Amino acid sequence: MAAVAAISDPQRRALFDFVCRSEDAVSREDASSALGMPRSTAAFHLDRLAEEGMLEVEFRRLSGRTGPGAGRPSKLYRRAAREISVTFPARRYELAGDLLAAAVEESDSTGEPVREVLTRVAADTGRRIGEDSGDLDAALESCGYGPRFEGGGKVVLTNCPFHQLARSHADIICHANCALLEGMAEGAGEDPSMIRFVAPNGGCCVEIARDATEVSAS
Length: 218
Prior knowledge:
Largest sheet: 4 strands, antiparallel
Distance between the termini: 41 Å
Number of domains: 2
Radius of gyration: 24 Å
């Protein structure tokens, strides 16, 4: 959030775009000259972008000389390697992309139907998420499902992390989502049979019923 706020300033955004388009790391002098702003202003904004992880900093003598008399190294900036994405409400399209790509690759190499592979890949991924989180509720929060805990052990998932994909490809995405959540429950040490499909009402197509009698009745 801080990184997004940092880049919202017009001058800062212009500096960021200039650094991203540059073939090599740029100096404060390069940036101020290219954008027609005082060097002190460019330095302030470049340092702010670096503080928020949008840019990386390095020090190098631009003259190429070394030793006494070569001068101080210049502070240079280049685009950071990390990616930043913010969505409201939370979306996890990169997770869906990983699942789909892994399923297609395995299906292509084994000949197994891609839908069957996707179900298994989603369950395996969910299992790892559940194990790493150590708790199903924490896993649901980390993946952006927005769990709402109701009476009788019922958990309503108020957000679908794959919303746009689910709207366009509901059959395949919702089944993969169900497998993901079943694996998540198993990895967290809970009964995967409590995961069940429901008609989406602005949220996820799955809800969780920890009450065993409620699951059996459904």
